[in-house]
Amino acid sequence: MALDNEQDDKNLGGRPLKFKTVEELNQKIEAYFGNCDSHLSTRKIIETRADGSTFVSEIQYFTEREPYTVNGLAYTLNTTRDVLIDYESGKYDDRAPDADEASDILFSNAIKSAKRRIAADVERRMLKGESPASAGIFWLKNNDNWRDRQELDHTSDGRRIEAPPVYVSSIAARGNNDAEAETETD
């Protein structure tokens, strides 16, 4: 009987989570950003001496800064963009053992924070001229809800706002007078 309970607890809700805790997810996200930032790295080089023997030497160098991307984050986390969207939606927040809504320790908040950091990086690179403006604009429109123009919503909760009947009847009456005026001048 104990074996059945262990099996039930082990597979609650189907496939196991990609990340056991929110802390683990946050650490992997920070590792991704740290790897993208310029940092000191070591490279081993096999060199040949004058006598033909080889030896290994190490050189240290600074890496170039890589741009932050959502797909790069997904690749580093060994998952897909769609899975990140699921985590961002809050679908798995209740399954994290260290989740705490009161202190915002949730899977969804970790992904949202990472995506805000990526969007800020895209915007910064675009404004500093480090990436083509058109590429940055395209990315921000499709990933960060930017728009070229101001869009006014003339609806109320998705419903059209109806004009009061007084205005509708006066507009209709005016429309008939305009039609009569046109026929008199012809």
What order do the helices and strands come in, and which of them pair?
Elements: H1 2-10, H2 22-36, E1 40-48, E2 54-62, H3 70-76, H4 81-89, H5 107-128, H6 133-143, E3 155-156, E4 159-160, H7 165-185
Antiparallel strand pairs: 1-2, 3-4
Helix pairs in contact: 2-5, 4-5, 5-6
Q: What's the short story on this structure?
A:
51% of the residues lie in helices and 12% in strands. It has 7 helices and 4 strands, in the order H-H-E-E-H-H-H-H-E-E-H.
Beta-strand residue fraction: 5-15%
Largest sheet: 2 strands, antiparallel
What's the arrangement of strands in the largest beta sheet? 1-2
Gap from first CA to last CA: 96 Å
General description of the model:
The chain has a two-stranded antiparallel ribbon. It has a two-stranded antiparallel sheet with strand order 3-4. Strand 1 (40-48) and strand 2 (54-62) form a beta hairpin. It has a domain at 12-37 and 67-146. The protein has helices spanning 2-10, 22-36, 70-76, 81-89, 107-128, 133-143, 165-185, and strands at residues 40-48, 54-62, 155-156, 159-160. The longest helix has 22 residues, at 107-128. It is 51% helix and 12% strand. It is mostly helical and 186 residues long.
Features:
186 residues, mainly alpha, two-stranded antiparallel sheet, 7 helices, 4 strands, 51% helix
